[in-house]
């Protein structure tokens, strides 16, 4: 009797939630799968649950690590400050603690700015860079985030966080009628982010992180002068063409400055394409991971790139 053929497909990876203590501060993360590391970095006021639709599919061929940034989600406050550099260092320390020499770093919004900072500070630990609706690419940003830098912002945020999710989901589409405030498609993710700010520790982390990268005029930190250092690094830039939080023009301009980027503009998506347009961004991300070669750091090459004139 002939035995039935065995399927070669891998069983689905089961994510597990874990915590680790680094320099006295707890970092919470979800991990799944085996293989080259992919580190997922959420945006301002969010947490690792924003990646719930991507973790399983990515884990079929990779070790996926979705982390709560210090002060966010279930992670404790940072040992130091809330700057991009401090967040990037916390991610470096997490990779070392988990035994990964390098990773593909995927960042959304603020997480994109942190991913850029990570690649700048730790190029030898960066395999690839994926920027989704990334911050740090130009000054313009929604007035809602600029307002977070003003005096009394924490009181306002506390009031908004107490609104029921169903009410927030209804308010966002109304706000979307105002230019540059919010995209209607983002009502669900925004409601979830606001709900997370109901805890005073999360609100303080949100305000302090926002003030480290923003002022009343917009984004105060830019990575564009460092883009020349990414010349040899595989980079994917993805955004929604209806993003009202960060102008799509930032991503188009940066893609034009990079030598060979993978560009994914998602029609009809807002600021959270990894949540609201999974069927479009996931195939592109998987193809990018499969079709690119991990970056190999060379100090001689890095020295050459540092000596070049900045991109304009």
Automatic annotation (TrEMBL):
Pfam families registered for this protein in UniProt: Abhydrolase_1
Where the record annotates domain AB hydrolase-1, the positions are 36-276
GO cellular-component term (any): membrane
InterPro entries listed in its UniProt record: AB_hydrolase_1, AB_hydrolase_fold, AB_hydrolase_sf
Q: Which GO terms describe its molecular function?
A: catalytic activity
Q: Which PANTHER family is this protein grouped with?
A: HYDROLASE, PUTATIVE (AFU_ORTHOLOGUE AFUA_2G14860)-RELATED, MONOACYLGLYCEROL LIPASE
What is this protein's record name?
Pimeloyl-ACP methyl ester carboxylesterase
This protein's species is Actinoplanes italicus
């Amino acid at each position: 009797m002939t035995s039935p053929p065995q399927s070669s497909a891998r069983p689905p990876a089961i994510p597990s939630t874990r915590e680790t203590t680094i320099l006295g501060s707890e970092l919470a993360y979800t991990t799944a799968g085996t293989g080259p590391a992919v580190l997922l970095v959420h945006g301002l006021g969010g947490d690792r649950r924003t990646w719930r639709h991507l973790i399983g599919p990515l884990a079929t061929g990779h070790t996926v690590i979705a982390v709560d940034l210090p002060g966010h989600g279930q992670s404790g406050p940072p040992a130091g400050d809330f700057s991009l550099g401090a967040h990037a260092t916390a991610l470096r320390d997490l990779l070392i603690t988990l035994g990964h020499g390098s990773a593909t770093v995927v960042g959304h919004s603020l997480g994109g700015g942190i991913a850029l900072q990570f690649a700048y500070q730790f190029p030898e630990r960066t395999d690839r860079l994926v920027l989704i609706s990334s911050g740090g690419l130009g000054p313009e940003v929604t007035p809602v985030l600029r307002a977070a830098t003003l005096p009394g912002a924490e009181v306002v945020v506390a009031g908004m966080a107490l609104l029921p999710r169903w009410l927030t989901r209804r308010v966002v589409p109304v706000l979307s009628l105002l230019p540059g405030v919010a995209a209607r498609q983002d009502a669900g993710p925004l409601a979830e982010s606001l709900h997370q700010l109901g805890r005073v520790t999360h609100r303080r982390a949100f305000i302090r992180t926002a003030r480290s990268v923003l002022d009343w005029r917009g984004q105060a930190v830019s990575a564009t002068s460092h883009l020349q250092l990414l010349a040899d690094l595989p980079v994917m830039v993805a955004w929604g063409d209806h993003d009202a939080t960060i102008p799509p023009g930032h991503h188009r301009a940066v893609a034009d400055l990079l030598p060979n980027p993978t560009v994914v503009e998602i029609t009809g998506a807002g600021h959270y394409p990894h949540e609201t347009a999974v069927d479009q961004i996931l195939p592109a991300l998987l193809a990018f991971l499969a079709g690119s070669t991990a970056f190999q750091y060379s100090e001689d090459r890095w020295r050459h790139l540092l000596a070049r004139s900045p991109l304009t």
